[in-house]
Structure formats: structure tokens, C-alpha cells
Amino acid sequence: MSEYLSTSKKKVTAPAFFKMKQAGEKIAMLTAYDYTTASIIDAAGVDCILIGDSASNVMAGNENTIPISVEQMIYHARAVARAASHALILCDMPFGSYQISREEGVRNAIKIMKESGVDALKLEGGIEIIETVKAIIDAGIPVCGHLGLTPQSVHKFGGYGLRAKEEAEAEKLIADAEALDKAGCFAIVLEKIPTVLAAKITEKVNCATIGIGAGNGTDGQVLVYSDMLGMNRGFRPKFLRQYADLYTVMTDAVGCYINDVKTVSFPNESESY
């Protein structure tokens, strides 16, 4: 059995993604934004924990990912990095931190790595940011790309719909993936694109592909932890599978606590000094 398999107790690294792809082992990735959640997810054996800029939505209640800052991402990433001993820790570079110039992108990438302790960074975009991607990799930082539905471009797209349905956009997406692969990315997230296209890209590139709403032909999958654990009511996109109903579990538990406090059954004698 390969030492890179998720059952290994060794730390998962960026080069391990190539090994897992070659071995045909699917890569399991989940988000986390705090120490406690990351500790649980890491202990469960996940291959990669992503501190997504989705923290803007999940943790801060914003409508999109655009408002979150470099400093806020570092805050969340530092907590997650402290918690994990097995999973590769991947952090999003937020909107505005790498689009201005290559130099600004490298500066912010180094800042995030130095101050958070994560293992790698993720950037959204293709050929238009390729020089920045190359420069960050040249600085010694592993990079994961992100194509398809890129949430930082929500205003450009006009929403969160399926991407690359038309041939022209599909061809550009393939070219972007090949460019990121050639630049040295260890992985590419493919979000909300047709299954056939995602599988085609997976065959064309050497790096691992991680799907979210892209079918099962990719090298791995990623979900937002609070979505897959059923902590949200009313958010049920087609690609989401819920593995628990923590909304009900938590509200029931809180309800029991409230009742126990109101009826003075908590704390009881054994819970008092």
C-alpha cells in the first residue's frame, strides 16, 4: 500500500497529490475555518483541509466571498494549521490579493505562508493570472488552481450558475487548465462544470483535479463542511450530499439546555461543587 494513501499517518504534502492521482486513489477535501472543527476533520482522516474564502459567507455572513481580507484569511488559516497534523492545509488567496500585479501577488502569498503556517495556496483564474502563479511557485509555494465557477468573479458571471456549457468557454477552460498544469500547480479545483468536461480535463493534466459540482470523474472532491454536515437550512444545490443533520441535532440540544436551565434541573447536585 502506498505511503501516500489517506490511511497513512504521514503528513499529506503537495507532491502526494500527484502520487495519489497516479495510484488512482481519490482525494477527499473539506473546508474548515477554526481550530475545533479542523481538529475533528483532521482526526477523521481527510486528505486536505481548505480554508476557503467561503469563510466570508460561512463565518461572517456575507453574501459573497469578495469582502474577506488577507488578514482575515490569515486569522482563520492560522487556527486551522494549528489543529491539523495529517491533512494538507490549503488556503485561498482572497479577492484583490493577487489581481493587481505579479509582485503584489507574490508579496501577499509570502505573507499568508509566513503568518499562517499553511502548506499551500489556492488562486482563482487561468491564463490571465498565469505569470503570478508561476512567480508564486518559483518562490517555493505550492499552488492549487481554481477554474469553472470562480466565486470571486460572481459579479462578472452574474450569479452562481453552471459554467462552460458552451464550446468556446469549455475550450478556454481546457486551455486554462493545461496552462496551470504546465506552470507547476499540484492541483486544480473544477467547480460547477459539466461532468464530461471535468473528466476530459482530468485526463489531460498531470496534476490532480478536485471537483465540486463537476461529477465523479475528477481525482477528488471538495465540499464546505457546514453544508455536508447539514448545518444550513435551505441550501441544497444539486451537487451537495448531506451526511448529517446537525442543524436539528444542535437546535434540539440547545432546546434541552434552555429547558433544563428554566426548570432548574441544570446544574444538579453532581454537577455542582
Give the number of domains.
1
Q: In which order are the strands of the major sheet placed?
A: 1-2-3-4-5-6-7-8
Strand content: 5-15%
CATH class: Alpha Beta
Query: Quick check: average pLDDT?
Result: 94
Radius of gyration, Cα only, in angstroms? 20 Å
Total count of helical runs of at least 4 residues: 11
First-to-last CA distance = 53 Å
Helix content: 40-55%
**Total number of strands:** 8
Quick one: overall form?
A: globular
Notes on the protein architecture:
There is one protein chain. The protein has one domain: Alpha-Beta Barrel (TIM Barrel). Helix content is 41%, strand content 14%. It is built from eleven helices and eight strands. It has an eight-stranded parallel barrel, surrounded by seven helices. It is globular, with a radius of gyration of 20 Å. The model has no long low-confidence stretch (mean pLDDT 94).
Topology, please?
Elements: H1 14-23, E1 27-31, H2 35-43, E2 48-51, H3 55-58, H4 70-83, E3 88-92, H5 102-116, E4 120-122, H6 130-138, E5 143-148, H7 154-157, H8 167-183, E6 187-191, H9 195-204, E7 208-212, E8 220-223, H10 225-228, H11 246-262
Parallel strand pairs: 1-2, 1-8, 2-3, 3-4, 4-5, 5-6, 6-7, 7-8
Helix pairs in contact: 2-4, 4-5, 5-6, 8-9
